[in-house]
Specification:
By secondary structure, the protein is of the alpha/beta class. The protein folds into four domains: about 60 residues, Signal recognition particle alu RNA binding heterodimer, srp9/1; about 170 residues, Rossmann fold (3-Layer(aba) Sandwich); about 70 residues, Orthogonal Bundle (Helicase, Ruva Protein, domain 3), CATH 1.10.8.60; about 180 residues, Peptidase M41 (Methane Monooxygenase Hydroxylase, Chain G, domain 1), CATH 1.20.58. It contains 22 helices and 13 strands. The strands form three sheets. It has a five-stranded mixed beta sheet, covered by helices on one side. A hairpin with a 5-residue loop joins β2 and β3. The longest helix is centred in the C-terminal third of the chain and has 26 residues. The N terminus is likely disordered. Bound molecules: adenosine-5'-diphosphate and zinc ion. Adenosine-5'-diphosphate (ADP) binds next to α7, α12 and α14.
Length: about 550
């Protein structure tokens, strides 16, 4: 996620080590940031990953390298005096606000104006897994190559794409790959670069950014805005502080620029956020960021691809990639990359010719310790099991009770669709939903909880069913109070009766009775099909995501009772 220094080359740690051992390095700028800058004796500079080991400085010093513990001064940019003043003032303001953040800010200030990188070395091959996301941006690549063709068909391409998902899942990587595949310049900025500066500066920076992109050699470009929430957060109703004024201006400038360019221009704005629901709806309207693509954590098959990719250019010994894919559940791509880098560093320190399983093991403990509390590895296994049984509970209920609804995906990888995991089925198209169908829907919603109870016992049911219970209560309540499907109100509609002060106790009692009886039914189905439940769950635990073909392959229809 480093694009503050687009003009600086990046070298892998392994190549850096080569420079180190052949004594090519003159200086190293060692800071606490994720990358360190390296200057070679022949004058070239590049960045590599910061090993962050306690004895790094010592190692470098011993090799006769000049170690400078600060960020490099950017000599290629001679500042006009006014800019210097602005920087100085904002540095003071920022250090007043937060001295901790200030140092990082200073660094990004000198490279705030985004320089394009025409780095066609990035392409879809650099993005392992994420198949659905890649599929969703393929037409955009084609559009960037041939905007006129699309225009001649009158086709409207999205101007903006919103990538959302947890940090480190490869959103930046995918955006770079789009630019690389289409062979157009890539301009990257971060939303946080636009705030905490003088009012009006953010907006003018946005305008400059778009101007640059338009004036690029081909007039085509990918503009990438990371952390878009920094400028595009939902506006609080009662917010009139100066800070938000600045944000509004910046956001408005962005929206204006986006509506300013037309379909024939090959400019695509890709933004990234961790939280789609935090964004100002104005950003997500048609003609703005109207294509939303979720980037999820990788499942086991994707993790295998990511591990493979990152090991590829490194000297490796006997590493069982499949086993490592299993061990790294819930890891993001960035975390996997970090693990492998850590292993490479350990192998190097031990002067081993290749990276071995043993180095991966050591790196794994380091990475885990850095990322989460102790014992998490154990808890994680139990959690996975609960999630898996819960999700298969839904799936099994659905297979049995709503056989016409195809289950397209069961997964235990968390996403915005569900904190633990989720099961997706495609409902049949119909205009009306009848009473029988609504009962079945509730049954499927309660299937998750029922499976937990049947497998782990009534004392071990979890909070994971909360959302299911909310949704099923809503359906049951509507059946009785809105659709005239209950006994207490009969055909009366509760909304119309509100003023009459009706007795709600009766209604709640009836809702409860309905839910209880439906729960009893689905629990029986789960009990009768326990072995099916276990079979599917075992496969789910192994593969983490199951698609309809996987379910077809199990040939459950013959065993389902
Ligand atoms: P995000 O923008 O979502 O926070 P990044 O794109 O910055 O994540 O990912 C950080 C790093 O993690 C990448 O540079 C890459 O090394 C690694 N990475 C993440 N996802 C993947 C992936 N799907 N395939 C290969 N590498 C990945
Ligand atoms: Zn559920």
């Amino acid at each position: 996620m480093n694009y503050n220094n687009n003009s600086i080359n990046y070298k892998s740690f392994v190549l850096f080590e080569k420079d180190l051992s052949s004594k090519n390095i003159s200086s190293i700028y060692l800071t606490d940031s994720s990358k360190i800058r390296v200057q070679l004796k022949n004058g070239t500079t590049y960045e590599t990953d910061n090993p962050r080991t306690p004895d790094a400085k010592e190692t470098f010093l011993r090799s006769g390298i000049n170690v400078i513990e600060s960020y490099p001064v950017n000599s290629r940019q001679a500042y006009p005096i006014t800019l210097m003043v602005i920087s100085a003032v904002s540095i003071i303001i920022m250090s007043l606000r937060s001295s901790e953040r200030a140092s990082k800010r200073v660094f990004s200030l000198d490279s705030l104006d985004a320089t394009a990188v025409e780095d066609s070395s990035y392409n879809f091959k650099n993005v392992a897994g994420n198949e659905e996301a890649k599929e969703s941006v393929k037409d955009v690549v084609d559009f960037l190559k041939n905007p006129e063709k699309y225009a001649s068909y009158g086709a409207r391409m999205p101007k903006g794409i919103m990538l959302y998902g947890q940090p480190g899942t490869g959103k930046t990587l995918l955006a770079k790959a789009v630019a690389g595949e289409a062979n157009v310049p890539f301009y990257a900025v971060s939303g946080s670069d636009f705030i905490q500066v003088y009012v009006g500066v953010g907006a003018s920076r946005i305008r400059q950014l778009f101007k640059k992109a338009r004036n690029s050699s081909q007039g085509k470009a990918v503009i990438f805005i990371d952390e878009i929430d920094a400028i595009g957060k939902k506006r609080a109703a009662s917010n009139s502080s100066g800070g938000s004024d600045e944000r509004d201006q910046t956001l408005n400038a962005l929206l204006t620029e986006m509506s300013g360019f037309n379909e024939k221009e090959g400019i695509i704005v890709i933004a990234a956020t961790n939280r789609l629901d935090m964004l100002d709806p104005a950003l997500l309207r048609p003609g703005r960021f109207d294509r939303h693509i979720e980037i999820t954590l990788p499942d086991i098959a994707s993790r295998e691809k990511i591990i493979d990719l990152h090991l590829k250019n490194k000297p490796t010994g006997n590493i069982d990639i499949h086993e490592w894919a299993q061990k790294t559940s819930y890891f993001s791509g960035a975390k996997i990359e970090n693990l492998i880098n850590e292993a490479a560093i350990i192998a190097c320190k031990e002067n081993s010719e290749t990276i071995e399983n043993m180095h991966m093991d050591k790196a794994f403990s380091i990475v885990l310790a850095g990322y989460e509390k102790k014992n998490r590895a154990y808890i994680r296994d139990v959690d996975r099991k609960i999630t898996a049984y819960h999700e298969v509970g839904h799936a099994l209920a659905s297979l049995k009770i709503l056989p016409n609804e195809k289950i397209s995906k069961i997964t235990i990888i968390p996403s915005t669709k569900g904190a633990g995991g989720y099961t997706l089925s495609i409902p049949e198209d119909k205009l009306y939903e009848n009473k029988d169908y609504l009962k079945r829907r509730i049954m499927v919603l309660l299937g998750g909880r029922a499976a937990e109870e049947v497998i782990f016992g009534p004392n071990y049911i979890t909070t994971g069913a909360r959302n299911d219970l909310q949704r099923s209560t809503n359906i049951a309540f509507n059946m009785i109070t809105q659709y005239g499907m209950g006994k207490t109100l009969g055909l009366l509609n509760m909304q119309e009766l509100y003023d009459l002060n009706i007795n709600q106790d009766e209604i709640i009692k009836e809702c409860k009775k309905l839910m209880d009886s439906i729960y009893g039914e689905v629990k029986n189905i789960i009990i009768e099909n326990r072995h099916c439940l276990k079979r599917i769950t075992e496969l789910l635990l192994e593969k983490e995501t199951l698609y309809s073909v996987d379910l077809d392959n199990l040939k459950l229809s013959t065993t389902l009772k």
